[in-house]
Amino acid sequence: MLDKLRGEVLEANLELVRRGLVLYTFGNASGIARDHGGLVVIKPSGVPYETMTPADMVITDLEGRVVEGKLRPSSDLPTHIALYRAFPSIGGVVHTHSRHATAWAQARLEIPCFGTTHADHFCGSIPVTAPLTPAEIDADYEANTGVAIVRLLEGREALGCPAALVAGHGPFCWGKSAMAAAQTAVVVEELAAMAWQTVTINPQATPIPAVLRDKHYYRKHGDKAYYGQK
Fold it and tell me: Which of 128, 132, 202, 212 sits at 20 to 30 Å (Cα–Cα) from 139?
């Protein structure tokens, strides 16, 4: 069942390794088969990337129940599920503890849009959630992490803001597919590093003007985009 998606999700997980975004068994990637009743394929918990095969990917339903697979799914599964349930446009979710993006999350600061490289991918800052309350941490921690992200994105189109920093934790990224989400995770880490270096060089740096930000974002996104080939 869903062999193609298993392969795609494995490849998205391995992309995190190739790009240096994960260590040991950190992080996870998943994909959803909405045409198969919303079944989710996700990395198994605590399994080293170098030994993983497509058969190791775990299939669950949107209640978190294992449908196929011998291993336990990632402990972050409830967060992924919360995003899939809230945003039908999402086809893949990735979570990493990449150094620079996680540093911004630990600082509980959004990543400002300091330049056009950032604006090519995000029409504004990469937002950060409010810290979870003690009650939210004690009960259904991973699910409440997803709730915090959904709350943060209220009023936004998910693919228009394809990542968020979870305060004190790290980045979650998403896209139309698992690989698209992995690519977003790569971009977020690069933008986080650039932003850190920017404020190191100039602590008074401010975001670029909205007109320049919007020009760069919308030449790549939306109905009037003209970047790239048809």
Answer: 128
45 CB-near residues (< 8 Å, 6+ apart): 71, 72, 73, 74, 75
The catalytic residues are: 120, 227
Q: What's the domain range around 26?
A: 3-218
Rounded to 10 degrees, what is the CA torsion of 134, 139, 141, 145?
-80
Identify any residues that bridge with 92 across adjacent strands, giving them in sequence order.
Answer: 31, 175
Say what the pLDDT of residue 1 is. Answer: 66
Q: Decide: pTM greater than 0.85.
A: yes
Q: Domains in the chain: how many in total?
A: 1
Cα–Cα–Cα angle for 128, 130, 136, rounded to 5 degrees: 130
> Do 1 and 171 form a contact (C-beta atoms < 8 A)?
no
CATH of the domain at 74: 3.40.225.10
Q: How far apart are CA 28 and CA 25, in angstroms?
A: 8
Residues 181-208: pLDDT tens digits?
A: 999 999 999 999 999 999 999 999 999 9
φ and ψ at 185, to 5 degrees?
A: -60, -40
pLDDT at position 230 is 76
| The two three-digit tokens of residue 14, written as one number | 């391995």
